[in-house]
Predict the 3D structure of the following.
Amino acid sequence: MTDRVIVTMRGLTKRYGELVAVDHLDLDIYEGEVFGLLGPNGAGKTTTILMLLGLTEPSEGTVRVAGHDPTREPLAVKRLAGYLPDNVGFYEDMTGRENLRYTARLNRLPPAPAEERIAALLDSVGLGGDADRPVREYSRGMRQRLGLADALVKDPRLLILDEPTLGIDPEGVREVLALIVRLAREEKRTVLISSHLLHQIQEICDRVGIFVRGRLVDPGPISVPELVARGQSLDHIYLQYFQGGD
Amino acid sequence: MKPAAVQDTPRVTASWWDRIRQRTSSWSSGGLGVVCAKEIADHTTGIRFLILFLLVGITGLSSMYVGAQTIRDTVAQEDSPYVFLRLFTTSGTLPPFIAFVSFLGPLVGLAMGFDAIVGERNRGTLSRLLSQPIYRDDVINGKFLAGTAMLGWMMGSLGLLVAGLGLILTGVPPTGEEVVRVLAYLVVTVIYVAFWLALGILFSVIFRQAASSALAGIAIWLFFAVFARLLAGLIADTFFPVTQDAPVEVALRNARWQLALGRLSPTVLYEEAIITLLNPSIRTLGPILLEQVEGAIAGFLSPGQSLLLVWPHLVSLVALTAGVFAVAYYLFIRQEIRA
């Protein structure tokens, strides 16, 4: 892990009318780390991700992704960030390969290398044999893995995964997590992963930020190795906040 | 001081120029082209467009066939020019070709547009699509352009089919003037159907369910196709009742109001425009008094004069289409990706 910062958020706030979805968030994410956004549903995880990608405008505060402002230079940010949305969807009548090919074209990858890359990615997520079946025949877990391949088509420096293990069976979860770890460690990508599943986050993340009602709880991001060294687990910390809060 | 200022100027213009180039390169080789190509591929391989094409094609061609029979029976007796144009406008036991196209055109446009955005949203592909390095407007522009291209292709093929079959059935080749008029008719039809496509896309941006979007579109279609004209008559009659002994000014005013109110409907605009374009004997679209036609020599208008007569109609149709699309565009650009 290097100490170069890839994502900076300062005083980041998003309001939907009266509701404050994200409340003055200050956070740095370093190049090459796996950062977990942990929190209950509706804590502002997805909103934060959307602001990172320039898909929604912050009401207040700033975000920088590799020095770019997602609101003003969305294309620069979207070129370097791969995104797996929660409830990812595909064009059902197209095959897995065709869906990825569309993404490659939107990223203006030259056709021949793109084909090779798509084939390699499909193999690496275990969809090599199903690549030419229409997506409507895919199971939930297969879609999720295809989504991961899709986010990787553009060879992103920053990989943003929103609830990547939602709705897949335990075996599928293990596969997806192993894949994410491999991506981060071997290919040196920065991974930002949002989830509400403590054990998964603890298994694969370097640092974790716990979100409650749009705020990052004190004392800010928690280093997982340190936590483990102290003999604690995320459960303790997490429950502490929710029992204390409610 | 001075050299610095001199150095500064080209740098500023370069970045300005780069931005323009960046922008135009995204028009020509970027997201717009990719989205448009994908949408066209979807339309050509999908079942929906095939159904719409068959619907319009079969009804249109059968009505043309019936019309051609009528022409064959009567063409020998009457000494009438423009046989080729009459293939489009003659009704036999079925309404004429143009009536079918005019009635079904909105359905085609709406069917192609009603789920453009809401479909992507509900399938979960919209956020994935918009997280790619393309401008957000590339998505909606690409969809509209692809739809319009498909409409152009559809109307072009239909026009050629009618022309070809008509040629076989009647044996009368079209004159240059007739070709111009038919081309104008096809272009106006594409613009009119593109209006409904834009409306479909607008509803697909507004509504969160594809079914609501489709229903809203159909409601507007029925309103304009059926009720707008009745309503125009009703309003005109309320304000300017034409009784048995009403003076001629009132009758005239009633007719003018009815016409003006009717022309608020794109359907009326379109129908007036195409009738004029396809029928050279139509010389005016408003009410005229008997003394105005006194001494007028019966004759036909040249294509240019017909076009001039309906120019305001065409401008209004283009403006309506552009306006509706602009609203859809604006709403889509400002919209939250998440519900």
Notes: The interface with chain B takes residues 46-47, 50, 53, 55-56, 74-76, 78-79, 81-83, 85, 87-93, 102-103, 105-108, 147, 150, 154 of chain A (CB under 8 Å).
